[in-house]
What we know:
The chain is mostly helical. Helices cover 56% and strands 0% of the residues. Helix 2 (30-39) packs antiparallel against helix 6 and helix 9 crosses helix 11. The chain is elongated, with a radius of gyration of 18 Å.
Amino acid sequence: MTKEKLALEIIDRLKKEYPDAGCTLDYEDAWKLLVSVRLAAQCTDARVNVVVQGLYEKYPTVHDLAQADVADIEEIVRPCGLGKSKARDISGCMKMLEEEYGGQVPADFQKLLKLPGVGRKSANLIMGDVFGKPAIVTDTHCIRLVNRMGLVDQIKEPKKVEMALWKLIPPEEGSDFCHRLVYHGRDVCTARTKPHCEKCCVRDLCERNGVED
């Protein structure tokens, strides 16, 4: 089976297994997703979803957050880890949104990459979830699973994984496929424990790379 056919079959099975899979970060506005995805670095989405409630209660708009003292932001987001750098990036990002884009998140990948604290993973998430554009979000679950399944061959660098997947995944499937990998990676194809291959919907397709019997 070619990698292209393998990808399509995996997409189909994950779609049936997780039909309602979506972004696990809670957000109402595009700028809030930008904040949350920055806080999610080395932190669980569940914790981020709790922490941002206090942040938005104190700073409910882009303008409010842009005007906030970085130290005050840091105090609130500290439970997410890396508080100083995350607070600095959030402040800089909100300032740039207000000064250059009228408080709106730009629907342009390259412009998103210029925002403080926004890398390819974050920009793809915004493009896919907010604007409905083709996107490949190479988070840790995605990188681990596509290597384990055999869709990519021992590639760990996020951008290289993204480029490899663009060749295999239909553009309209990319965003949802990556969300489903998150669900599958948490529930079945786990990282810290031996994966639960016995209940995996793609077990007969998976190469099980790196999995010890």
